[in-house]
Structure formats: structure tokens, C-alpha cells
Write a structure and sequence with these properties.
With 565 residues, this protein is α/β, with parallel strands linked by helices. It has helices at 2-8, 11-36, 39-46, 50-53, 55-63, 69-119, 122-127, 130-172, 174-222, 224-229, 233-279, 285-318, 321-329, 391-398, 421-425, 442-446, 457-466, 470-474, 493-506, 523-539; strands at residues 350-358, 368-376, 380-384, 406-411, 414-415, 428-432, 511-515, 544-548, 560-563.
């Protein structure tokens, strides 16, 4: 498991992780010193004559020149209290360093996974479940750092303290150390033996149930209309209930297991006390007091320490599934830099598609094969073909989302590839059948990706006018600042498409791509959109427009039509 966890932690965090390890060791040492500092008080309580009979206390008494036992006891007690206070403050500072490391790592992993998933491209996104990806980014990364790394740190710290404390007891009183082993080791071993397999299984079950629940909720609200019309909500609810029942059941079992460390350690302590009483028959009264006192002090610190180890180990086993998820995601290898390049292609002449072929990884035949054509600047080009002919795949290739299996896409003679993909996408506009809309205002959706204080109002107004949105926008109480609901729920289909067109125009795109943009619209709305496209082409003869459609009526405004067979 250690190697698995280390493989997830990025190299940039490993050196700092070594510093965190040192702080954990230092905290364990300080906690040990704090416990050791209580021994003089223990001696003074159990044997008042130890001030003069114990060579260390007597030496300190004489060296400091104390004149009375009361003054000496007060000074020793005050010094110990001061030391404990300072030790606790240092511990808080060290813990804050560890805490900051944990949350900085969470931020890095979550952000890196979010960007990395996005940069894997359209093919990966389509093959994945968005609810699962969302859970990995939002929940799994956090669970890993607080449910795996933090318990590991706790185990390491408490084990170090246990070793120091046990070693000191063994040196001072071997009988007390043997008694400690005889009591606590069997209790811990029995606990681990009983819960080991169960906790790991519970964690996996909870993760799968959470994934299913996330997916069910997302699909329910996204597909409300179809679910309601087809009376499918009872089935969705049944799936939700099964998931949440599993989560509750597993959570209840895990909560029960979480109480076991205290029960096991308390039983061990009671057994130790009973054994100590039975041993007192062969020991003198003074020896018995010292042995009992040492065992009591040791137990006072060992009990929470052993409980901490047990609890941390349980949490680690329960959340172990996060290790597999993040290791499989290969977070270190994901491209995690945002592409902020705003450079554009200077599109001057033509797009040339030369012997283009494309095949999906899981397919045994080409979706597109040996396709060639040209699109000249200023043309309105239509691309048609039967369903499944590869029209949308061709668009995804032209948009730079896919890379050709064979052949090239040339923009003014320059091959489209990963090196210039961002420049190309900065040059084009895209209006799909289902225009992507954020749950925000009309303004935010037209100027998608722009900070509000950087939006050019004049360009917004021109884009609204050119997309024939003016009448609709002016009819709203808040104009462009009106909210449109999730996925544009408060808009009609035609209004969504016009916002998509306005977005491309605000971007000042040189080429507009329409992917079945009117296929879901009624005839009148389709004619309106086609008229808008025709007007755009007439007003800007240098604007290139490419339209994919399977309906002839959607291509009425085109200068030329390319058919894919």
C-alpha cells in the first residue's frame, strides 16, 4: 500500500512530505517528553520522601538551593505545567504544517484531475460517465487525503510514540512493559483480525453505491421530461433507494466498528488492573505503588494512542478504494496545464481535407474513409448524408476534437494537429444541435469564458442584433442580465440556437460550424435560423459557414453541398 500511495503523490510534494514526516517524529518525541515530565509528579504523589531519597530529585533540590519541600514541589509542578503548555503550542504549529500539506495536496490532486480529464479530449469524455468523473474530482480526491493520508500520518505518529514510551518503560521497569504487552497487544490483534476484511469490503460497497446514487440523481433531473412522460421515476427512485440503503447499511456497520477500539482497549485496561492486583500479593507496598503508578501513566497515554492507531487503520481500510481510483487515473501523467493561448489562425484562403480516414479505437472499420474536399473562404457549405455516415465525426475532426487515422486537414496549407489545435479553435465558432448553456445570464452565455468586467458591451449588442435576438432580449425585465435556467430551461429551442450563434459572433469567429443546429426545431423556427445564417453570409462575405444536416431544408442557404456516402 505504501508504494501505491507514494505513486499517487506528485514528485513536487514528496520532498515536502519528508518534512512532514520529520514533524510527525518531532510531535511523537514531544508527546513522549510531555509524558515523561509527569514522572517527577508521580513520584512526589506516591512517595513524599522521594524528594530526598531519589538521587535525581535530591540532586535537583540541592543544586537549586531550595529551603523547603513545599517550594520545591511548587517549582517542579510549575515547570512541568509550563513545559506542557510550550509543548502543546509547538505541537499545534507542527500540526498546522501537516494540515496545510494535506489540503495543498488535495487542491493539487482535485484540480489536476479536473483539468486532466478535460484535456483527455472528447472521445474520453464520451466514453466516461460524467457523474463518476465528477465524484472522482469532487469527492475521491478529498477522501484520499483525509481518509488515507491523514490516517497514515496518525498511525506513524502513534506508533513512534508507542515505541518511545514502551522502550522507556522497559528500561525503567521491565515488569510494567511486559504487562503492557500482555494486555494491549492481544486486544489490538483481536480487533484487527475481526474487522480487517469487513472494513475493506464496506468501503468498496459504499463507493459503488455513491457512484450509482450520483448517476441516478444526475440522470433524473437531466431527463425529467422523458422520465415523467414514460412514468420511469418509480424505477429511478428504486435505484436511488437501493443505493442509499446500501450507504446507510454500510455506514451503520462502519460506525459500529468505529466504537470497537475503545471497547477493546477498556477491556484490556480492566484485565491489566486485575492482573496487577493479583501480582501485588508478591510485591511490597512501595513497589506496588510505583508499579501501579507507572502502569497507570502508561495506560493513560497508551489507551488513546492505541485507539488512534485502530481508528486510523479502520479509516484507511475503509477508504482504500480511493488509492485504486487515483492510481488508475495516473494523475501524475495527466496534462494539467490550462491552455490560455489566445492566438488565432489567420484564415485567408481554404480548408483542404485530403484522403481523410478515421476509425474509433473500439471499431474494426473506418467511420470515414479516404475523404477529400475543399472549403474556400467566404463559402456557405452544406454537408449531408444518411444517419451513421460520419457527419458528426467529420465535424469533430474539423473542430480538432479527434485526430485523423489517416490523411490530413490543412488550413491554408498548414496541417491541423495538436500543436496548433488551440489556435484553430480560437478562430472558429460552433453551434450544435444542443447548444451548451450554463446556468447563468444571457450575457454570460454569449460571452462564454469571459470575465464579466472584460465583456465588450458594444460587441454583445452587435452579436445580439446579428443573431436576431434583440426583440427577445428587450422583452425581458432584466435584458441580457436575465437568467436562463439550467441548460437554458427557460428558453425555446430557437432562442437557444440564436444564443449559440450570438456566442460565435461575439467571438468574431472566421468560420462558423453548425452541427444539425436546426434538426430539433419546428419548420418556422428552422426557416428563421436559416434566414439568419443567410443574412450573416450576405453581410460578411469573408465569413465561412459550414452546415451539417440530414434535412434538405436546412441546407437551403448553402452555396454548395458535399454529400458523404
Amino acid at each position: 500500500m505504501k508504494l501505491s500511495v507514494l505513486g499517487i503523490i506528485p514528485k513536487r510534494f514528496r520532498r515536502r512530505g519528508c518534512m512532514v514526516t520529520l514533524t510527525i517524529l518531532l510531535r511523537a518525541l514531544l508527546n513522549f517528553m510531555g509524558l515523561a515530565a509527569l514522572l517527577p509528579v508521580l513520584y512526589l504523589i506516591l512517595d513524599s520522601d522521594s524528594i530526598h531519597s531519589n538521587r535525581y530529585l535530591a540532586g535537583l533540590y540541592d543544586a537549586m538551593g531550595f529551603g523547603s519541600d513545599t517550594a520545591f514541589v511548587t517549582a517542579v509542578s510549575g515547570t512541568i505545567v509550563a513545559f506542557i503548555v510550550v509543548k502543546s503550542l509547538i505541537n499545534i504549529g507542527l500540526y498546522r504544517f501537516e494540515r496545510d500539506y494535506i489540503y495543498a495536496l488535495y487542491r493539487y490532486l482535485s484540480r489536476n484531475l479536473y483539468i486532466g480529464y478535460f484535456n483527455r479530449g472528447l472521445a474520453f469524455i464520451k466514453q466516461s460517465n460524467s457523474a463518476v468523473l465528477s465524484r472522482n474530482v469532487n469527492v475521491v480526491c478529498y477522501t484520499f487525503v483525509v481518509g488515507v493520508l491523514r490516517p497514515l500520518a496518525t498511525i506513524f505518529s502513534e506508533v513512534m510514540l508507542f515505541i518511545l514510551l514502551f522502550g522507556a518503560i522497559a528500561i525503567y521497569n521491565p515488569l510494567a512493559s511486559l504487562l503492557t504487552i500482555a494486555i494491549f497487544v492481544p486486544s489490538a490483534w483481536l480487533y484487527f483480525a475481526l474487522v480487517r476484511g469487513r472494513v475493506n469490503s464496506y468501503g468498496n460497497k459504499e463507493n459503488e453505491a455513491q457512484r450509482t446514487k450520483f448517476r441516478t440523481v444526475a440522470e433524473t433531473y437531466r431527463g425529467y421530461a422523458d422520465i415523467e412522460i414514460n412514468n420511469a421515476f418509480p424505477k429511478m427512485l428504486a435505484s436511488f433507494d437501493r443505493s442509499i440503503d446500501t450507504i446507510v447499511e454500510v455506514g451503520a456497520k462502519n460506525a459500529t466498528i468505529a466504537t470497537l477500539p475503545q471497547i477493546f482497549t477498556e477491556i484490556g485496561l480492566a484485565a491489566g488492573m486485575a492482573l496487577l492486583v493479583s501480582l501485588s500479593v508478591g510485591l511490597g507496598s512501595a513497589d506496588m505503588k510505583i508499579l501501579f503508578g507507572i502502569f497507570a501513566v502508561a495506560a493513560l497515554r497508551l489507551l488513546p494512542s492505541i485507539r488512534g492507531i485502530m481508528g486510523a487503520w479502520t479509516a484507511l481500510r475503509y477508504n482504500r478504494y480511493t488509492i485504486d481510483i487515483l492510481r488508475n487515473a495516473a494523475t501524475e501523467k495527466l496534462t494539467s496545464t490550462e491552455e490560455s493561448d489566445t492566438c488565432r489562425f489567420e484564415f485567408r484562403d481554404r480548408i483542404a481535407v485530403e484522403n481523410l480516414s478515421f476509425r474509433f479505437d473500439d471499431s474494426d472499420h473506418d467511420t470515414l474513409h479516404d475523404l477529400s474536399f475543399e472549403i474556400r473562404r467566404g463559402e456557405v457549405i452544406g454537408i449531408k448524408g444518411r444517419s451513421g455516415a460520419g457527419k458528426t465525426t467529420l465535424f469533430n475532426l474539423l473542430l480538432g476534437f479527434y485526430s485523423p487515422t489517416a490523411g490530413n486537414i490543412l488550413i491554408d496549407g498548414e496541417r491541423l494537429d495538436d500543436g496548433n489545435r488551440r489556435k484553430w479553435q480560437n478562430t472558429i465558432g460552433y453551434v450544435s444541435q444542443s447548444v451548451f448553456l450554463i446556468d447563468g445570464t444571457i450575457l454570460a452565455n454569449i460571452a462564454l469564458g469571459c470575465d464579466e468586467d472584460a465583456i465588450d458591451t458594444d460587441r454583445i449588442n452587435r452579436a445580439i442584433d446579428m443573431a436576431n435576438l434583440r426583440e427577445f432580449v428587450d422583452s425581458l425585465p432584466n435584458g441580457v442580465h436575465s437568467r436562463i435556467g439550467e441548460c437554458g430551461a427557460l428558453l425555446s429551442g430557437g432562442q437557444r440556437q440564436r444564443i449559440g450563434i450570438a456566442r460565435a459572433l461575439y467571438k468574431r469567429a472566421d468560420i462558423l460550424f453548425f452541427d444539425e443546429a436546426t434538426s430539433s426545431l419546428d419548420n418556422e423556427t428552422e426557416r428563421g435560423i436559416n434566414d439568419s445564417v443567410r443574412t450573416l453570409a450576405q453581410n460578411d462575405t469573408e465569413l465561412t459557414i459550414v452546415i451539417i444536416a440530414h434535412r434538405e431544408s436546412s441546407l437551403d442557404c448553402c452555396d454548395r453541398i458535399i454529400e458523404i456516402k
